[in-house]
Amino acid sequence: MDVSGNVPPVQGQGTSVPTAPLSYEGVWRFTAPATEESVPQARRAVRDLLGRQGVPAHQDVVHSLLLIVSELVTNSVRHAALLSPQVAVEVAIGRDWVRVAVEDDHPYRPKALEADFGQTGGRGLLLVREITRESGGVCDVEHTSTGGKVIWAALPLTAPVGHPAP
C-alpha cells in the first residue's frame, strides 16, 4: 500500500510509464469548528465523498473509516479546542487504499495507542489502532510544521481477510 500518494509505475518496453489516476483518486480537505456538532458532520462529509467519487471500498472498510473519523474528530474537539478552534479533515484516496487524517493546532502528541484501563474514557486512539490493524491498514501520529499534530489511518479498499466481498 503506497500512502504517499505516489502512483506506482507500469513496466513496458523497458521504460516506466506512470499509470493514469482512476476517477476516484484524489485528495480532499475540509475544516470545521472544534465543536461537538462537527463530529457527525465530518462523518457525513467523508461518507458522501466516498459515494460521490464512486470509491470501490468494501462496506466494512467504509464503516471502519467512518468510525475512525468520528473518534479522531471527537479527540480534537475534546482535547485541542482551546488551542485549535478549527480541525481539518483530509481524505486521500489511491488506487487500492484510502487515508483519513485529522489535524489540529494543539502541540500535544498523544501516546496514542495506549490506554489506561482504569478510566471509562480515553480509549479512542486504542480503538483506532485496533480497527486499522484489523482492516490491514496503518496509522500514526505526526507533528505538523506549524507545531500541531495530525493523526491518520490508511486502510486498503479491499475486504479484510475473512470478510466476503460485497
TrEMBL record:
Superkingdom classification of source: Bacteria
Gene3D superfamilies linked to this entry: Histidine kinase-like ATPase, C-terminal domain
UniProt xrefs under InterPro entries: Anti-sigma-factor_SerPK, HATPase_C_sf, HATPase_dom
Keyword presence, Kinase: yes
Keywords, alphabetical: ATP-binding, Kinase, Nucleotide-binding, Serine/threonine-protein kinase, Transferase
A GO MF label: ATP binding
Domain Histidine kinase/HSP90-like ATPase: start-end pairs: 33-152
Alphabetized PANTHER family for the sequence: ANTI-SIGMA-F FACTOR RSBW, ANTI-SIGMA-F FACTOR RSBW-RELATED
Designated name of the protein: ATP-binding protein
